[in-house]
């Protein structure tokens, strides 16, 4: 029986021994490569777009790729095989950082860099200059196999690297979550992680050990592939995130103390853009030079914050959104984007303004319980023909929304159309009852109700959850807080509810490992089985791997049980990860 286990939690942290995986088991495990690839049978594709191998990928034909693969390809069903395996060496190191020129404090770097180096499936990108944008095109690497030799050189802590958003089809052991898919990597040890680039787009990798990524243990991932709209140049990853002058461990203790009295966590000291910012007369703005008037530019925006949802914008320029997380979407035009922790948006903007310099803005949103002690973070985009490309911009922003509402399903419409089967949900929801005193309840085989009630978790780090799955041992300890989905290839529906009496009702960025999920809907207050289902979206709803649960509200998602393993479903606020709390 192919079983899927979902661990509902908001933390993992400890040290343990590392496990070395034989090279022939990097991707598929001891059982070898599956003889058939699991297709999402229950996600009925009704796309009228047809893969076309008659054109060549280029600035005016970005939807094309090669050999019958294009933006119209459902990459959950098939992907190209490049026959190429690339290997990288990454090392997590202790260091000190002051990215905005402010207080220097202990931090973590990968290969001596903050943020860590960008991984392209076709190559490891050199460290980017603050003053140069990435080259227009990279190797065609959708379908590459990537091996990463990762060394933990942190003296007193374990670690593990999670490849955020990567499906890891039948290779759950490579997901990098201590206590769930592996033993944490002990100090001085090395592990080889592997992934196959079945998807394309923008993501990131980060430590999944306590709140280490808040200290700098992260970097971007770019998997080049087709796109749903044309552009001339790819500017590469644009990483935005919060920064604190205390370590993540110290901040986690402060956040925990504040929570006990019903208060919010301390505000961030600053927001960092591509590893830098200004603090008074110190630090530096991230700068992008050389915009050519009339050209279209792709920007890959990633929010790596510990605790801040941000709104991003570029003065006088509109964004055309072409992906949400790793899912291509129908092009959608907006002045700004709300991006929560762990999310990615690929956008295109046209250099259609007077030659000059313009502010890019990353603003924390108070209504998302995101607070910082300084004004908006700023970076600079300069045109090639600007009178003085080094001059500070004088541009101003349009009035931006201050709410904590994600883009509606009607805006983030997947390029490849899929329909979620609602039959089982509708048959069962009429008998649905909530017991908000319990963490998880189930209804039939399909509907799971998850109440975010700050319940602690206790995991045996020497025996990861995946070991139970491998041993076909279903006698899981109750403290693991597991939900077993034993039936493969059916739809499972999740209603995630923050109880109305929660001491600190805040939005939670919910992230699922090993799957994209379909966002059926969300709302304020308590989910009502009698009325709430009428507002859910079943025809081609938004797909992604991180979505906001409204503070004091509910979020409804669905996904097929088509990727067996032990997968984590959690809030991506770092202090929740560190505080060992689970819904």
From TrEMBL:
Family note: Belongs to the multicopper oxidase family.
Pfam families referenced in this protein's UniProt entry, alphabetically: Cu-oxidase, Cu-oxidase_2, Cu-oxidase_3
PANTHER family on file: LACCASE, MULTI-COPPER OXIDASE
UniProt cofactor(s): Cu cation
Record's protein name: laccase
E.C. code: 1.10.3.2
CDD domains for the chain: CuRO_1_MaLCC_like (cd13854), CuRO_2_MaLCC_like (cd13880), CuRO_3_MaLCC_like (cd13901)
Catalytic activity: 4 hydroquinone + O2 = 4 benzosemiquinone + 2 H2O
Molecular function terms from GO: copper ion binding; hydroquinone:oxygen oxidoreductase activity
Domain Plastocyanin-like per the UniProt entry, residue ranges: 141-227, 239-384, 460-578
GO BP annotation list: lignin catabolic process
Taxon lineage: Eukaryota, Fungi, Dikarya, Ascomycota, Pezizomycotina
InterPro entries with a match to the protein in the record: Cu-oxidase-like_N, Cu-oxidase_2nd, Cu-oxidase_C, Cu-oxidase_fam, Cupredoxin
The keyword Metal-binding is annotated on this UniProt entry: no
Organism field: Pseudopithomyces chartarum
């Amino acid at each position: 029986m192919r079983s899927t286990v979902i661990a509902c939690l908001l933390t993992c942290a400890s040290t343990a021994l590392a496990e070395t995986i034989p090279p022939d088991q990097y991707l598929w495990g001891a059982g070898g490569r599956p003889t058939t690839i699991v297709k999402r049978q229950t996600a009925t594709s009704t796309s009228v777009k047809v893969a076309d191998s008659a054109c060549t990928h280029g600035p005016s034909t970005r939807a094309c790729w090669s050999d019958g693969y294009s933006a119209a390809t459902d990459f959950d069903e098939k992907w190209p095989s490049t026959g190429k395996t690339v290997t990288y060496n990454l090392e997590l190191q202790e260091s000190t950082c002051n990215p905005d020129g402010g207080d220097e404090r202990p931090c973590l770097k990968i290969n001596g860099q903050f943020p860590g180096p960008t991984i392209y499936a076709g190559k490891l990108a050199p460290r980017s200059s603050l003053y140069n944008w990435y080259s227009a095109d990279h190797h065609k690497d959708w379908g590459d196999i990537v091996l990463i030799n990762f060394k933990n050189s942190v003296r007193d802590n374990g670690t593990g690297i999670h490849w955020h958003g990567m499906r890891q089809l039948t290779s759950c052991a490579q997901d990098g979550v201590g206590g769930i898919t592996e033993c944490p990597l002990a100090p001085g040890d090395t592990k080889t992680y592997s992934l196959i680039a079945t998807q394309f787009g923008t993501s990131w990798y980060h430590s999944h050990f306590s709140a280490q990524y808040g200290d700098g243990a992260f970097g971007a991932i770019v998997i080049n592939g087709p796109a749903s709209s044309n552009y001339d140049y790819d500017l590469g990853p644009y990483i935005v995130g919060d920064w604190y002058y205390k370590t993540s461990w110290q901040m986690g203790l402060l956040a925990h103390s504040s929570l006990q009295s019903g208060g919010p966590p301390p505000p961030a000291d600053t927001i960092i853009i591509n590893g830098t910012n200004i603090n008074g007369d110190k630090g530096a703005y991230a700068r992008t030079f050389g915009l050519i008037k009339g050209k279209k530019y792709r920007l890959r925006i990633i929010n790596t914050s510990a605790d801040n949802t941000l709104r991003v914008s570029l003065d006088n320029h509109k964004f055309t959104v072409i992906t949400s997380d790793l899912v291509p979407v129908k092009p959608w035009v907006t002045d700004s984007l709300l991006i929560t922790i762990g999310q990615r948006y690929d956008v295109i903007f046209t250099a259609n303004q007077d030659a000059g310099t313009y502010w890019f803005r990353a603003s924390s949103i108070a209504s998302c319980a995101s607070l910082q002690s300084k004004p908006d973070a700023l970076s600079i985009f300069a045109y090639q023909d600007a009178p003085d490309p080094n001059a500070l911009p004088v541009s101003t922003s349009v009035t931006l929304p201050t709410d904590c509402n994600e883009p509606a399903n009607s805006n983030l419409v997947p390029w490849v159309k899929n329909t979620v089967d609602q039959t089982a949900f509708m048959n069962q929801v009429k008998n649905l009852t909530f017991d908000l005193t319990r963490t998880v309840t189930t209804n039939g085989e399909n509907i799971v109700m998850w109440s975010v009630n700050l319940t602690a978790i206790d995991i045996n780090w020497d025996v990861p959850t995946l070991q139970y799955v491998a041993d076909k041992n279903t006698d899981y300890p109750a403290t693991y807080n597991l939900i077993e989905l034993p039936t493969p290839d059916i739809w499972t529906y999740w209603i995630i509810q923050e109880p109305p009496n929660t001491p600190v009702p805040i939005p939670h960025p919910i992230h699922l490992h090993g799957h994209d999920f379909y966002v059926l809907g969300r709302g304020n207050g308590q989910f009502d089985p009698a009325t709430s289902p009428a507002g859910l979206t079943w025809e081609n709803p938004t797909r992604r791997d991180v979505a906001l649960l409204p503070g004091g509200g509910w979020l409804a998602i669905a996904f097929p049980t088509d990727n067996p393993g032990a997968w984590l479903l959690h809030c991506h606020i770092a202090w929740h990860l560190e505080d060992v709390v689970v819904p």
